[in-house]
Design goal:
It is built from 4 helices and no strands. By secondary structure, it is mainly alpha-helical. 27% of the residues are buried. The longest helix is centred in the first third of the chain and has 24 residues, at 3-26. The two termini are 15 Å apart.
Length: 95
Amino acid sequence: MSRYSELQEEYFPNLETYTLAITRAHGKNHPETFKVHELFNKIEAKYQAKEDVSSEYQEIRKLTDNYKIPTDACPTMEKTYNFLSELDQAYSTEK
């Protein structure tokens, strides 16, 4: 099993909840969280269809300034960005 597949199996179930939660907790001050949630849903759907998700990770990197944790981030937002960053790195390494 590839590193990306391992991380996907571990992180995707939580990220479904986390990406939505951060829109509710931080959407007002961080509107990019809505797009991050949308892009994660695209990644999940495209990955299941065995489609390339490089462009979605690239867009998340831009939106989050390379997964930079905002100073007002809650632990869930921090975990979300860390999980997405690890997934992105693993995916990029396998490409």
